[in-house]
């Protein structure tokens, strides 16, 4: 009978079952999001102004002369970004857009691989297909491809920056984040991390790359001063459309100014405490957890309290979400994942029966998602701090960190160690 069972009930581990299930589904999702939805496009087209600006740049025509009072997508990249984007105009706009979508998909696949390796897992484990499946099920990835935005390359630069910074390859880490800053300054808050670790060489590339590209682009651009006089002031203003930040959302729904200011101050204070606690108690015991959680806090706070926060910026929070695999993660609670649903879901809440209610849910989901995520992280760390105070060790970092270092690994286990652990999982 046992011999018969061997053939009737072949044994297979969970780690093998998960890839078998997710790989075919994920590949078809990637095809759907890129070839079908991406090529179809939508009423919002972030690629068109970029292509037109690149074409104008190559033909020595004004780049920053559009009317910024409309709600259409505008070209907002600095001259350094225009220089990097200019090869897009070498071919016709349709094929250029298709190539950009294809390159974005490749970048996302590389991002999934890098984030898998960053957290210590091999590419042939269940983690990579799970990460890719999650990537392409979210609104942030779907709309990045549909609207044809630059976000996937920002995420790629962010992950490269983290891996290189953690490996102490400071020159290359600076170049990685510097290339993203040359196009979009959304990762600028992450420069606090090398500032805290005193990795000064990172700033050479982070500042030098955008500066060098701007110096190169300035004399060959027709109207670079218009970026400073027209576009830059516009970037500093909060708008009440396509803006999920506290101020943008509040302006749209007519929230009182004092309440908007109060909320922005409250979330800023939450971030300050969270960053302080993470640096004091995790920086020297678990650098990966400190770096990825701190980056999530910095970026999520920027999206909420800044002048502009768009839903597909949530892509940059993927490293924070991945910390759920680490001991000590602030993502191991259900309110955090309720927030993740709000700012990552591809579900639409428009309702024919309850029109105003559905509209309010749809326009608020990203804002409350970011807010709940920040509150969950803050409360997790606050409760830990209160427990430390109750135990009488909150002010004695050395005494607290010694046992923590013994129970929480300072670095992520190697893929070989993880594979050994996985081999101990019983087959089903």
Written description of the protein model:
It is found in: Cell membrane. Residues 418-428 have a biased composition (Basic and acidic residues). Keywords: Cell membrane, Membrane, Transferase, Transmembrane, Transmembrane helix. The protein contains 20 helices and no strands. It has 428 residues and is mainly alpha-helical. It folds into two domains: 29-236, no CATH class; 243-428, no CATH class. It is globular and about 75 Å long. Mean pLDDT is 90; it is low at 397-412 and 414-428.
Tags for this model:
428 residues; disordered C terminus; 68% helix; 20 helices; globular; mainly alpha; single chain
Q: What's the gist of this structure?
A:
The protein is mostly helical and 428 residues long. Helices cover 68% and strands 0% of the residues.
- The domain count comes to 2
The gross shape turns out to be globular
Number of helical segments with 4 or more residues: 20
Q: Main beta sheet, described?
A: none
Q: What would you call the quaternary organization?
A: single chain
Beta fraction of the residues?
under 5%
Mean pLDDT: 90
Gap between N and C termini? 18 Å
What is the rounded Rg? 23 Å
The total count of strands amounts to 0
Please give the share of residues in helix: 55-70%
- Runs with pLDDT <50, length 5+? 397-412, 414-428
- Helix-strand category: mainly alpha
Q: Which H/E pattern describes the elements? A: HHHHHHHHHHHHHHHHHHHH
């Amino acid at each position: 009978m046992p011999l018969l069972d061997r053939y009737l009930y072949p044994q297979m581990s969970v780690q093998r079952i998960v890839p078998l299930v997710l790989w075919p589904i994920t590949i078809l999702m990637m095809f759907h999001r890129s070839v079908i939805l991406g090529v179809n496009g939508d009423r919002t087209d972030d690629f068109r102004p970029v292509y037109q600006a690149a074409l104008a740049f190559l033909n020595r025509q004004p780049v920053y002369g559009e009317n910024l009072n409309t709600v259409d997508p505008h070209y907002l990249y600095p001259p350094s970004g225009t220089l990097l984007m200019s090869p897009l105009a070498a071919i016709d706009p349709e094929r250029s857009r298709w190539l950009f979508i294809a390159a974005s998909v490749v970048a996302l696949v590389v991002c999934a691989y890098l984030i898998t390796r960053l957290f210590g897992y091999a590419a042939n484990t269940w983690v990579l297909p799970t990460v890719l499946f999650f990537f392409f099920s979210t609104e942030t990835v779907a709309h990045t491809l549909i609207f044809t935005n630059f976000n996937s390359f920002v995420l790629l630069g962010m992950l490269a920056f983290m891996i290189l910074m953690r490996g102490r390859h400071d020159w290359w880490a600076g170049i990685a984040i510097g290339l993203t800053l040359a196009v979009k300054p959304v990762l600028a808050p992450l420069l606090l991390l090398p500032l805290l670790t005193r990795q000064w060489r990172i700033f050479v590339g982070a500042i030098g790359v955008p500066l060098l590209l701007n110096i190169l682009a300035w004399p060959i651009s027709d109207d670079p001063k218009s970026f400073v006089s027209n576009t830059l002031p516009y970037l500093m203003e909060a708008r009440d459309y396509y803006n999920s930040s506290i101020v943008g959302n509040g302006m749209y729904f007519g929230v009182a100014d004092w309440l908007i200011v109060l909320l922005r101050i409250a979330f800023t204070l939450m971030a300050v405490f969270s960053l302080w606690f993470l640096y004091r108690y995790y920086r020297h015991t678990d650098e990966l957890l400190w770096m990825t959680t701190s980056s999530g806090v910095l970026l999520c706070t920027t999206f909420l309290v800044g002048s502009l926060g768009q839903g597909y910026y949530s892509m940059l929070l993927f490293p924070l979400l991945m910390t759920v695999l680490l001991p000590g993660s602030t993502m191991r609670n259900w309110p955090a994942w309720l927030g993740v649903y709000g700012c990552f879901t591809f579900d639409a809440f428009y309702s024919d029966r309850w029109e105003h209610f559905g509209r309010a849910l749809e326009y608020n989901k990203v804002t409350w998602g970011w807010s709940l995520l920040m509150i969950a992280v803050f409360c997790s760390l606050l409760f830990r701090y209160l427990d430390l105070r109750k135990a009488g060790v909150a002010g004695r970092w050395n005494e607290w960190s010694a046992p923590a270092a013994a129970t929480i690994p300072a670095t992520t286990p190697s893929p070989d160690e993880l594979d050994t652990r996985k081999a101990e999982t019983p087959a089903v």
